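Feature request, filed as a ticket because there's no other form

It would be nice if the structure record came with a short human-readable summary line next to the tokens. Right now we just get the raw output. Example of a typical job, pasted below so the devs can see what we mean:
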Amino acid sequence: MSPLALAFALAATVLYALASHRLAGHAQGPHPTPKHWLALALPALALHLLVHALAWRQLDAADLHFFPALSLVGLGMAGLTTALGPAQRIEALGIIVFPLAAAVLLAYALLGGAAPGAVLDWRLQLHALLALLAYATLAVATVLALMLWFQDHALRQRHLGGWVRLLPPLTQMETLLFRTLWAGFVLLSLALLTGVLFVDDLFGQGLGHKTVLSILSWGVLALLLFGRWRWGWRGPRAAKLALVAMVLLLLAFFGSKFVYELVLHRR
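Raw output as currently delivered:
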């Protein structure tokens, strides 16, 4: 990574941390109306994006190895959080997501290095982009599910202070969660479809376990969304199934990349 990209990464990390700290501070204050956190989050996003743009320009190819791919998912999560926060009154999401984005960006800057990337044609680039967008969207949905779970528990225990005050009403949280799950489900469906159409021997080349785990994750999401429509599933059950789907996706892509690249040192 170039010195300029490293400087951008460090600056973005600091801005993410400050945005999260600002949101957390509002959760403890008497009037939780955090709006100026955007002045920190937006430049953090821009710098995060520039880090990848500079790295791709340096390598003359998209780098989708373990750390850069993880950083891209963090960028997507932070972008969704920044977009959803003001529009859906879900600023508290940034308290969790921004530190995660900062951590994966810092790991990329310090440990990712600059490895030559394989030159992918537009079809494989589309498949990879859809997959990363699906991971980011479903990761945000998982955080939302956990927040909804804890919000429901806090309301039942009549603990209405702290970060709970930053959240929208429970019904609005549920609506937002399932909209996000639907978006992630559609993106994952498109990623699997483009994989079938554009990737040669999807169950070979060491891709079999990735494909099986991705399909299992898709099936869990389909079950959850059908259960919501047919039986009105909500609360802890929805949170648990969303978490299972995300764990399967993490194992499918990042689990295998971790083993191949960091344990076996294969590229």
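Something like this underneath would help us a lot:
The chain has a mean pLDDT of 83.
The helical segments are 3-28, 38-59, 66-88, 93-112, 122-156, 170-198, 208-231, 235-263.
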